[in-house]
Amino acid sequence: MRKFIIKRLLISTVILFFVTLIIYTLIRCLPTSYVETMAMQLSTAPGSKPYEVWIEQLNASYGLDQPILVGYFHWLGDFARGNFGDSWKFTVPVIEEFKSVIGISFIMGAISLVLELVIAIPLGIIAATKQYSKSDYIISASALVGISLPTFFFATVLKLIFAVKLGWFDTHGLVGRNFAQLSTWGQILDQAKHLVLPLATLVIISVGSLMRYTRTNMLEVLNADYIRTARAKGVSEGKVIYHHAFRNTLIPLVTIVGGSLPGLFSGALITETLFSIPGIGYVSYQAMTAGDIPFTMFYLTFIAILTLLGNLISDILYAVVDPRVRIEG
Amino acid sequence: MAKKKAEGYLSAKESRRISKQNRKITNELEKKRKRKNVPESEYLTTMHDPNNSVEFDNLHTYFFTDSGTVKSVDGVTFEVPIGKTVGVVGESGCGKSVTSLSLMQLLQRPQGQIVEGEIRLNLGDKAYDVAKMPYEKLQDLRGNFVSMIFQEPMTALNPVFRIGDQLEEVLELHNKDMSKEKMKARTIELLEMVGIANSEGVYKMFPHELSGGMRQRVVIAMALACRPKVIIADEPTTALDVTIQAQVLDLLRNLKDKINSSIMFITHDLGVIAEMADYVVVMYAGRIVEKGTAEEIFDNPAHPYTIGLMASKPVVGKQVDHLYSIPGKVPNPINMPNYCYFKDRCEMCVGRCDGAYPEEVSISPTHKVSCYRYYADAEKGGNA
Predict the structure, then answer these.
(1) Which residues contact A142 (CB under 8 A, 6 or more apart)?
(2) pLDDT per residue as tens digits for the range A248-290
(3) DSSP class of residue A150?
(4) B252 shares its domain with B112
(5) Contact assessment for residue B170 and residue B143, using Cβ atoms and an 8 Å cutoff
(6) Which pLDDT value is given to residue A60?
(7) In a shared domain, residues B253 and B308
(8) What is the pLDDT of residue B363?
(9) In which residue ranges of chain B is pLDDT below 70?
(10) Are the C-beta atoms of B157 and B207 separated by less than 8 Å?
(11) Are the C-beta atoms of B43 and B128 separated by less than 8 Å?
(12) Which of B222, B249, B277 is the last residue of a domain?
């Protein structure tokens, strides 16, 4: 097991090297350039130097005059030493900006994951055990609707109904207008209220696939011979489903959920942006549109590491929950 | 001109109509089955012969599939006497397993349903009709009074639980007051009984750590744990090699003598039947074509299908170029013909074979066959 993990970590490092190389190349090729925008602004000031002079000067000071490969290794060297640089857009060290926004993203991710599990797994089991019944059709159809809805559309519809028409919630932001005047409890409640719509969007959009996954796996397990054996032993129907069958359904579920655990930190770019929640997704979106290379590089590398970690976790969990799987180096 | 459609072709409209109809039928049956607190009088019955442990009486088990109703078991009547072994033979898909699953009510519901007939189970002081028994009541009998040995040892055990836990579960369910230590001792004893040497070790193992033969033994141990009065062995040796097969058969025979239970032995291996069975039931396309004692069936097969089966069995010491095989194939289970199901494959047809499906005629008090060839004899003898 240890040998397997070490091997996987080494392979992951190689993958990470190429992933960051590609990301860096792409960012350098983006049409949005932080430096060009800045040069434009500076040159329009009265009595200023012309644009060409500014851009040359700025390129040199931001290290953009180097070729892409050189720039990449420069970045890689800094990154390996734990020096993530300063964010151009936010004008603070990248790590500081990251720390200030990751909390809310993690809270949102954790709440929506818990809600998803609590909703999807029981409903998936019900749909499977009552296959082709009315409840199965209702559950499966709503799961399909959830999967098919695009986030931006659904979020907008929610905003229109609950924020604009009914006026129950604010359309965006994490805090209300009078946030500063509220007591500590009031502040917490105010933030919670602002999270209702974004969380509803996140959960409804992603609950469907987990539900269908549970249903499919449960159906497969329920048709297995060992379920018939359990029934032949005289096991009650409830115990057949929640002990014999569920324990087997859990194998794929645990691996898929375990694999998504690092994703809790990755934020929800679209939802956060639509609701202007200052989480990691929204902030990195702002950084990307502004051409803020240090912050974007840091965020995308972070996502890449999380993805690799997720795969590793799901492989390890597989061996934990399924006695047939033994990992050997 | 209507295009000529391939056999079994269903238009979308037809298929929808069938599904709708099926749902109506199965919903009604399911509703009946799911009632709460069914009075015992509804499924209490009396055995026709108290020496029988199971009596199948005109059993009809249908599967309502999307392409039509499959009459897997269509009017099957036979009995399993106490302390005897009844072999059920027939080719794949003839309804052998479905008959046995009906006895346990383990059919794939809601598609699979017992639509008609009785399965009388002799509990000693009373008899129950399993076909009408509510599910919860039957739970107490399953694994306890009636148990089943399944044919797929590789998949019949739950992969995520240890052998010991799976075995103990049966004991726990049916012996509520048994202590933990006693249960473990009994489990180890069971494992030893089925010939597993390393019983302590196997107790802690997962199914995937055992070979097919070992797993089959575990399945047998599980079925025998509560000393059942009726054991259904659904091809218990098919997945095993011949040496293990012989051991398993010996084991079953010894155990049967030890606990005096009845065995319903399902197989398509005639050699195994000859060795094990006291009575033989030959099934073809959901019906019994011939039944009798083992001697009668093997020495004097009457139905052309049984004769064909015997002829297609390899005989040691006899040189043949081609092993005989019965020509043709089983009719489509959805559209069964209204004449003898075997007629199209039969080489011994007589004029009357065009008529309706033949009734059962007795050749001897125990030997019965459904074939027109014996009508003349029976009519002469006057016992049709």
Answers:
(1) A208
(2) 998 888 888 887 887 787 778 888 888 888 888 888 888 888 8
(3) -
(4) yes
(5) yes
(6) 79
(7) no
(8) 87
(9) 1-8, 239, 377-384
(10) yes
(11) yes
(12) B277
Weakly modelled stretches of chain A, pLDDT under 70: 327-329
> What residue has token string 């066959």?
B369
Contacts of B300 by beta carbon, 8 Å cutoff, 6+ apart: B363, B367
CATH of the domain at B95: 3.40.50.300
CA–CA separation, B98 vs B333, rounded Å? 14
pTM to 2 decimals? 0.79
Element containing residue B73 per DSSP (H, E): strand B68-81
Contacts of A323 in chain B (CB under 8 A): 159-160, 206, 208
Do residue B150 and residue A232 have CB atoms under 8 angstroms apart? yes
Chain A, 15 to 54: residues with Cβ < 8 Å from chain B are none
pLDDT reported for residue B1: 42
Q: Which residues of B291-304 are buried (b: 16+ CB within 10 A; e: fewer)?
A: bbbbebbbeebbbb
Contacts of A282 (CB under 8 A, 6+ apart): A101, A267, A269, A272, A273, A276
Domains of chain A plus CATH, in order, are 2-80 (no CATH), 105-321 (1.10.3720.10)
Task: Mention every residue, 6+ apart, whose C-beta is less than 8 A from residue B312.
Answer: B323, B324, B325, B326
CB B76 within 8 A of CB B59: yes
pLDDT for residue B382: 47
Q: Domain residues for B159?
A: 40-277
3-state secondary structure string across chain B: CCCCCCCCCCCHHHHHHHHHHHHHHHHHHHHHHCCCCCCHHHCEECCCCCCEEEEEEEEEEEEEECCEEEEEEEEEEEEEECCCEEEEECCCCCCHHHHHHHHHCCCCCCCEEEEEEEEEEECCCCEEEHHHCCHHHHHHHECCCEEEECCCCCCCCCCCCCHHHHHHHHHHHHCCCCCHHHHHHHHHHHHHHCCCCCHHHHHCCCHHHCCHHHHHHHHHHHHHCCCCCEEEEECCCCCCCHHHHHHHHHHHHHHHHHHCCEEEEECCCHHHHHHHCCEEEEEECCEEEEEEEHHHHHHCCCCHHHHHHHHCCCCCCCCCCCCCCCCCCCCCCCCCCCCCCCHHHCCCCCHHHHCCCCCCEECCCCCEECCHHHHHHHHHHCCC
Interface of B with A (CB under 8 A): 23, 104, 106, 108, 135-136, 139-144, 147-148, 150, 152, 155-161, 169-170, 173-174, 206, 208, 219, 222-223
Q: Is the Cβ pair A324, B206 closer than 8 Å?
A: yes
Last residue of a domain, one of B237, B255, B277: B277
Q: Could A225 and B141 be called an inter-chain contact, meaning their C-beta atoms sit closer than 8 Å?
A: no
